[in-house]
Design a protein that fits this description.
GO terms for molecular function: DNA binding; protein heterodimerization activity; structural constituent of chromatin. Belongs to the histone H2B family. It comes from Plasmodium malariae. One of its GO terms (cellular component) is nucleus. This protein has 4 helices and no strands. Helix 2 crosses helix 3 and helix 3 packs antiparallel against helix 4. The relative contact order is 0.06.
Length: about 120
């Protein structure tokens, strides 16, 4: 008994000249670029490994999630529908410890002022 092999399908691709399909890169949102920029501002001659970058990225994602959750909770407590900079500021004071919260609030206020003045 002889089994027939299926005929090869013709490659009809829209892509490169050699017939290969262009694969769309999947997006990966990360704060890596911004972490690197801040690192270069603080320590211009220092690098960072991929593993350390992933740890820093996870740390930032977790921190922003905590702040957003706390700000959302504050909106629910005060029965407001709109999340404003005031709720974010209060959430930062609750989530971040002491001096770090003061610096974060002052930098945030400066950024909001700069954004609204344009």
């Amino acid at each position: 008994m002889v089994s027939k092999k299926p005929a090869k399908a013709k490659k009809t691709t829209t892509g490169t000249a050699d017939g290969k399909k262009k694969r769309k890169k999947s997006r990966y949102d990360s704060y890596g670029l911004y972490i690197f920029k801040v690192l270069k501002q603080v320590h211009p001659d220092t690098g960072i490994s991929r593993k350390s970058m992933n740890i820093m990225n996870s740390f930032l994602v977790d921190t922003f999630e905590k702040i957003a959750t706390e700000a959302s909770r504050l909106c629910k407590y005060t029965r407001r529908d709109t999340l404003s900079s005031r709720e974010i500021q209060t959430a930062i004071r609750l989530v971040l410890p002491g001096e770090l919260a003061k610096h974060a609030v002052s930098e945030g206020t400066k950024a909001v002022t700069k954004f609204t003045s344009k």
